[in-house]
Design goal:
single chain, alpha/beta, Rossmann fold, about 10% strand
Length: about 250
């Protein structure tokens, strides 16, 4: 058995232990309804960390175009649901460059908090901005996964927050670095998600017409095959085609 195989086996065992422990601590459901562990527009705050050119150049765990698409979709979803969003950069004027233009365009009135720390949680302005929202579920996406996401996520967990990290709006310098950071966060109690999953969890009911059209538009623009499917349905069946059935607007 190789060292790599042993490491993978140990990681799997550790993950199983954590999962079993979490399940054992979860109280039994006594009535129907949404789990308190689900994200809602009222209980979440989004933190986007270091989505900047210099950071993206070295992020090789995923295609750069997909990365930009996904984090932009996530930002637009937060805007649709009025979820408080904190933008932060590192050395934007001297090294890393500005926040991705497509993300900044979603929040044109907001100036990202520029830091020197790799761990954004060590900058009191970030922590204070999160505290100000009064929300305990922190959704994080960052470059790189193994540094700026992992350090902030672990620090937020230790401060009593529930951390949900968006794997496909984050990237590492290698696939292994990205995946090991994900395992580390999961073992610590953080929850992995994808950007589309976050948006649909915020929507959760297609009869919620106040956000329906905006969500569909974000999906069309950034949802890949899902967006193509929506366009197809609307084209073939007409604009009356709706996941919400015959609900009137």
């Amino acid at each position: 058995m190789t060292r790599k195989t042993v490491c993978k086996a140990l990681a799997g065992i550790a993950l199983l232990v954590v999962t079993t422990s979490v399940c054992a601590q979860t109280p039994p459901r006594t009535q129907a309804g949404a789990s308190s562990r689900l994200l809602t527009p009222q209980n979440a705050v989004l933190v986007l960390i270091d989505h900047q050119p210099q950071m993206a150049f070295a992020a090789q765990s995923m295609d750069t175009q997909s990365l930009v698409n996904n984090v932009t979709g996530l930002a637009k979803a937060a805007k649709v649901f009025k979820v408080p969003t904190i933008l932060t950069t590192v050395a934007s004027k001297t090294f890393s460059g500005p926040m991705f233009a497509t993300v900044q365009a979603v929040f044109p009135e907001q100036t990202p908090i520029d830091r020197t720390t790799m761990n954004s949680w060590e900058d009191k302005r970030i922590v204070e901005a999160v505290q100000k929202t009064g929300r305990k579920k922190v959704v994080i996406a960052a470059l790189w996964t193994e540094v700026c996401l992992a350090t902030a996520g672990l620090s937020a967990l230790d401060d009593g927050y529930e951390v949900y990290f968006v794997t496909d709006a984050s990237a590492g310098v290698t696939k292994e670095a990205h995946e090991m950071a994900i395992q580390r966060l999961i073992q610590a109690g953080a929850v992995p998600m994808t950007w589309l999953q976050v948006m649909l969890e915020w929507q959760r009911d297609w009869a919620r017409q106040e956000t329906y059209d905006a969500v569909i538009n974000v999906a069309k623009e950034h949802g890949g095959g899902y967006g193509l499917g929506i366009n197809y349905a609307k084209t073939m069946l007409g604009e009356h085609a709706s996941e919400a059935g015959a609900v009137k607007k």
